Amino acid sequence: MLWRKIALLVLGVIMLCSLAACGNKVDSKAVREYADEITEKMLLAYNEDNYEQYIAHTDSQFKAVVSEDKMKEGNEMIRGKIGDYVPGSKKFKDAVKTSQKEQKYLVVRYNAKFTDESDDVLVTMIFDDNEAHEVGGIFFNSPKLREQ
Prior knowledge:
Elements: H1 2-22, E1 24-25, H2 28-48, H3 51-54, H4 60-65, H5 68-82, E2 91-100, E3 103-114, E4 117-128, E5 135-141, H6 143-146
Antiparallel strand pairs: 1-2, 2-3, 3-4, 4-5
């Protein structure tokens, strides 16, 4: 079961990266005005298993799929490999616009430090491309997460 989740995580990241590669560049400064703060809050909530803070800026689809138990289970699996997020360590990498089935998204990527991963962890945030800028997904990728 754990291997299946890891495989799905890796597949999801690959798909997101391919979406990002096909996307349109955006005004990074404008995106960062909301994305940096929301991402930091979600990563801190990840450290604390704080479900209410974790989902505070997510869209209804995310909330429907990610229950408190699922969040804690996923966090436990990820923390077991890469540890906790080092607060304030994320560095903006890039942002692109993309769409899927008539839904528009902003894919925003950061390199971040985690306590048990010597390399950077790629944190990919998926934001709804609308005025609400709600999070539709958060994904982690690193050498330790890719290990079998």
